[in-house]
Specification:
Length: about 270
C-alpha cells in the first residue's frame, strides 16, 4: 500500500502536476490521521472492555464479601442479644428481692457473660482495591464513596467492640464475677434437661453444691455484691449498644447489596 501511494506521488511529480501533488499529499495525510484515530479508538474500546471486565470481577467479589459480612453481623447480633438477655435476667432477679440467689441457674447465666465474641470484618476485596490503587476502577463515584464510608464504619465498630471486650468485660466483669461465682460447665458439673439457655433445668451433682455454698458466703460481702451488680449493669448496657450499632450496620449492608446487584444487572 505504501509503495502504491509512493508511485502515485512520483508520477505526479514527473508529470509536473505540482498542484495535484500537494492536494494528493494533503489527502494522504488526512487518511493517515483518520487511520491513527480509528486505531486509537479501537485501542480505547479494547482497554475499556478490559477495565469493564475487571470492574465486574471486583463488583462480584465485593457482593460476595458483603453477603459474608451480613452473616457475620447476624452472628454477632445473636451473641450480643444473648449477653444482654442474660444480664437482664440477673438484674430483674436482683430487683425482685434486692439480693442474689446463688444456684446453678445463676452461675450458668453469670458465666455466659464472661464470654465475648470478636467482631469479624470480611473485606479482602476492598483491601485489595485500596492496596493496589484499583479503587478508581469503580465507575460509579456515588457507590465507591458509599463503599469507602461503609468500610470505615466497619473498622470503627470493630474497634468499639474490641475495646469494650477488653476494658469492660475482661478487666471489669471477669474481676467482679471471679469474686462470687464459678464457671459452670455442663460436661463437668451436670447437664441441662432442656435446650433453652436461660431456662434449662439442671441436674446438680454434690460437688457443685459445695461450690454454690462458697459463692453464697462471698456474695454476703457488700463490696463483692456492689462490684458484681455494677459490672452486670455495664455488661447489659454495652451489649445493647453493640446490638444497636449492628442493627444500623445490617441495614446499610443490605442497602449496599441491593445497589450492587442493580449495578451488576445494568
Amino acid at each position: 500500500m505504501i509503495k502504491f501511494f509512493r508511485h502515485i506521488r512520483k508520477s505526479l511529480l514527473m508529470e509536473n502536476k505540482t498542484g495535484k501533488y500537494f492536494k494528493y499529499a494533503i489527502g494522504e495525510i488526512v487518511l493517515v490521521v483518520i487511520g491513527i484515530l480509528i486505531a486509537l479508538q479501537i485501542n480505547n474500546w479494547n482497554e475499556s472492555s478490559k477495565e469493564k471486565k475487571v470492574e465486574q470481577m471486583y463488583l462480584k467479589n465485593i457482593l460476595s464479601d458483603l453477603k459474608d459480612q451480613n452473616a457475620s453481623i447476624d452472628l454477632q447480633m445473636e451473641r450480643e442479644q444473648e449477653y444482654f438477655e442474660a444480664a437482664g435476667y440477673i438484674i430483674k432477679a436482683y430487683q425482685q428481692i434486692n439480693s442474689l440467689v446463688i444456684d446453678s441457674t445463676f452461675n450458668k447465666i453469670a458465666a455466659i457473660l464472661t464470654a465475648r465474641k470478636t467482631f469479624i470484618i470480611t473485606d479482602p476485596t476492598y483491601t485489595d482495591l485500596i492496596s493496589s490503587g484499583n479503587i478508581n476502577i469503580l465507575k460509579s463515584i456515588e457507590y465507591k464513596n458509599k463503599l469507602i464510608k461503609y468500610y470505615q464504619e466497619l473498622e470503627y465498630i470493630e474497634k468499639v467492640i474490641l475495646n469494650n471486650n477488653s476494658l469492660l468485660i475482661d478487666q471489669n466483669y471477669l474481676s467482679a464475677f471471679n469474686k462470687i461465682g464459678y464457671y459452670y460447665r455442663p460436661d463437668v458439673f451436670g447437664s441441662y434437661s432442656s435446650t433453652s439457655k436461660l431456662n434449662a433445668q439442671i441436674v446438680i451433682p454434690k460437688y457443685e453444691k459445695e461450690l454454690q455454698e462458697i459463692s453464697k458466703k462471698r456474695i454476703i460481702i457488700d463490696e463483692n455484691k456492689l462490684d458484681f451488680m455494677n459490672a452486670v449493669y455495664l455488661r447489659n448496657t454495652v451489649a445493647i449498644r453493640h446490638y444497636e450499632l449492628l442493627v444500623d450496620l445490617k441495614t446499610t449492608t443490605k442497602s449496599l447489596v441491593t445497589e450492587l446487584e442493580q449495578l451488576l444487572n445494568d
